[in-house]
Every structure is written in C-alpha cells, then in structure tokens.
C-alpha cells in the first residue's frame, strides 16, 4: 500500500474571544501560554477560552481509499484478480504483478501463462528480455479477499527452458521420482526473520545506534521491553491461515526484533510453495507497517543469534518401526555431502555457522540427540520411540526452500555412497547402520 500524505484526522481550533484578549493577535508566545494554562489545575477560565476539537473526517482521502481497498466486488462481477508471484534475479527477492481472470479458479492449470521483463529483474538481457511465467500453486489472497488469489509461478524462456534462477523446476523433477514419491517426504520448516526500522536499518525496538540488554528475556517473551513486532507476527499468522498456507505456529526469537514461524508438515514440492508464499505475505505486511523485512542470516554482528531456517525432515521409512536406523543412514549420507549442502543452504551462512549461538561450525559436520549445537539434531522422542524425524540446523534464513527440500530428498533417498566411504563415515560419526 502506498503511503498517503493526506491526514485522516483533522483538528479544528476554536478560539473563544473574551474582553481580556479580543484584539490581541495569536502569537506563538500566546499559543504556548494558552497550552500551559490549559494543563494547570483549576484553570477553567483558560479552558473556556481555548478548545481543540479532534474530528474524524468521513470524507478524508485515507478513508475513501480504505473504502475502495475493502470493496467487495463479488456481487457485481465474476472476474477475479490474480497476483502472479515469482522469484527475481537475486534468488531471494520476490516480484509480483496483477491480472484480471474472467472467473474464479480452483487449480493453477486453469490460469494462463504470462510474461515479464526479465531485463528489469536481472534474469534476461535487454535485447531478449521476455520471460514466461508458469502458474504452479494458488492461495487465497488475504489482502484483496473474495475469490481473488495469489499465484506462485516459476520462470521459463519462450522456448520452454527453465531459467537459471528457476529452482522449482529441478526440485519438481526430484520429487516426481517414484522412489521419492513412495517415501512421502515430510518437511517442517522454521523460518526466522528480523524486523528492521525503515530509515536506519536497525532492528525494531533497538535504540538507534545503540543496543538493548543482552539476550535472555526476549525468546518467547512478552512486554513492551521484550517483544517488538508482535502485531506483524500475528497479522502474518492469520493472513497465512486465511491463504491456506500450512503454518503451524510462531514465536518471538532469541534476538530482540527477531521472529520465527513454522510451516508444515508439508509433503514434497508443497513445502517450497508454502514457504515462498508465506514470505511474500510477510513482505506485503511489513510494507504496510512501514518496517523492513530482513532474511539475512546474521543481521547484527557480535554476541547475537543469527537467523536460520531449520528444516525438519522425515520419510515414510523413518516414521515407521525401526525408523531410527533409517535416520542414522540418512545422517551418514548427509555427512558425506556436507560441503554440497552448505553451498546450497543460503548466502552469508558462514557469518552465522560459527559454532556459537546454537550453531555448528560450517566446516565440521556433527549430529547429536537434543543438541542444538550440531549440524543435525535428533529429538529425544525420536530416540525413545525408535522412529521419527531429524532436524537439519544448517540452512540459513535466506535459503531457497525448493533447493533445501529437494537436496535432502536426493541425498537421503536417491543418492548411494560407495561402501568404503560409508564405512569410514560410520566410524567417524559412531553410527551403526
């Protein structure tokens, strides 16, 4: 929403003349004197001379604009507005534009392909700039309401080839493998983010140019001195539920001004679609609130927690009896492809994965039960029940969920290490598989 400069509240100043100052001009000195006198007890005479009435203007620009934004067009037309959303050239920025569709739709296959200027998003040269959008997933639009929708798209050349930043296409190929389909991979993704003040790009609630008290009271905290941005988190929570996103919870994080929400359990490619749409909704809400959203994995250097996107993962075999041994085998495979995963787990992650602040070192693979300082954490319930899930704590907050989810499936379901490498890794990690 654009910022509107016209005020929605108009102040009407009424000065009641009396014999004591009828002919006196309203100087700044007199104005201040009247304000001071109004605040003193027992000065009914001055309050009778001076009144400020705050009147709500029903015809103000803001109110009229709000009425139009909330206008329900459903009784008057079958047409709907579809907001086409795609990922820009940086691989993390979200772009969108709107188009009118002749009637409500229930499946993305009912929507037409569209195009955009890829030279303006860093995804195509100016002399051949047309990029084609393929609708892939639809969600209800919490901003426009009614039958209007948000459409998650991926991008292709006019010849039908996925462009380099289209990570969804490769993920869809992995998730369409019959072996992966049979394992029904589940994902629960914990998206952390930081809210920044608009002009200074400093965390919300922090003194400008200064620091709050040390970490400790902020995680899941309540109170004006501990929780900054709760309204944004709550608005996002409800908007995601309205949209049909499988959001499962939210909480304040360890660093003040930082929040987290969880999406899942989601199956296969759906996990990436839901995370990207939830990020878009969060961008729109922070835009309206006049706050900057940051997915930087270490927005503030020093003794402050970074921002991750921990990914909980399980397969059908992991969830069944004897699944803990399958989890151990998956951990072994993950250890052998540690560098490949790290390179795909987000930009700037080396600033976050230092071995401090509940992280493992980026250079060393580790795992443990209930240990948040490891690369892979296994829950106590999983150990006790002999089945369950694992948590990959390495992904950064700005990771691409299509890349992370598909790479986990590929490494643990499709990829097979050599027997020699497997034996050496098992010995190093003290795993019996």
UniProtKB/TrEMBL annotation:
Family of the protein in this entry: Belongs to the glutamine synthetase family.
SUPFAM superfamilies xrefs: Glutamine synthetase, N-terminal domain, Glutamine synthetase/guanido kinase
Assigned EC number: 6.3.1.2
Biological-process GO terms, alphabetical: glutamine biosynthetic process
One annotated Gene Ontology cellular component of this protein: chloroplast
Source organism of this protein record: Vitis rotundifolia (Muscadine grape)
InterPro entries: Gln_synt_N, Gln_synt_N_sf, Gln_synth/guanido_kin_cat_dom, Gln_synth_cat_dom, Gln_synth_gly_rich_site, Gln_synth_N_conserv_site, Glutamine_Synthetase
Superkingdom of this protein's organism: Eukaryota
The keyword tRNA-binding is annotated on this UniProt entry: no
Residue ranges annotated for the GS catalytic domain, each copy included: 167-433
Catalytic class of the enzyme: ligase
Compartments, record wording: Cytoplasm; Plastid, Chloroplast
Protein name, UniProt field: Glutamine synthetase
Pfam families xrefs: Gln-synt_C (PF00120)
